[in-house]
Amino acid sequence: MTGKIVLLTGAGISAESGLGTFRDKDGLWTQYDLNDVATPEGFHRNPDLVLSFYNARRKNAAQASPNAAHFALAKLAQEHPAEVVIVTQNVDSLHERAGSTNVLHMHGHLAGALCHACQTRWDAPEIMTKSDACPSCGAKSTRPDIVWFGEIPYYMDEIWEHLATADLFVAIGTSGEVYPAADFVQIAAQAGAHTVEINLEPSARVSDFAETCFGPASEVVPNWVTSELER
Ligand code: APR
Asked: Between the N and C ends of the chain, which has fewer C-beta atoms within 10 Å?
């Protein structure tokens, strides 16, 4: 029987919910230059472009539904006798809408807004504009509460602690191309965790995993959860 489980999810778990991934064919980074829409410099250069990019993603995410993989992970957390924590790189709320509660959004979330001036956070309106004023300090310096390239991901101290105490580390739907998340498998393995990659195809870090399982998340993840709960 497995003890604490740490799950790392990426865009691939939400792909079958209709949300694009980043590096697949037709992925978001094939349609936009990430330097224009996912960096502080890009936001400073053209806030309208960045805000409209995230307004469109926020609308897509709100219209999407969790798929069988999201629901399976919520079931795992409900039925597994030890802690199950989801560290997600995703900025949609599909894990929560499937019933997961122990979720850490290391790259922020589309449903959040942040004031650049005073760091206040609040629920983002459907459409954000550069003339929006911070509800706390009134400054017209609001941005999506998303962690951009070159910025420090959220919850890192908690994440390091989870990786150090995991019995099982499972990466689902991530290409292993972005750090620090791409290093999590090695850190968990060094701490003694068994490691599993569940993905559509081998990721950049596939050789670091003790076990692999390939196929669409909505099929493979429920089967994996069933087998894990039967252990
Ligand atoms: N089921 C399972 N895996 C899938 C599916 C699917 N239906 N569809 C795609 N995948 C896999 C792809 O094979 C790929 O390995 O999901 C992965 C998606 O990789 P990326 O597009 O790079 O997304 P991700 O790994 O989440 O990116 C990490 O990069 O741009 C930043 O902040 C952004 O959080 C993002 C980070």
From this structure: C
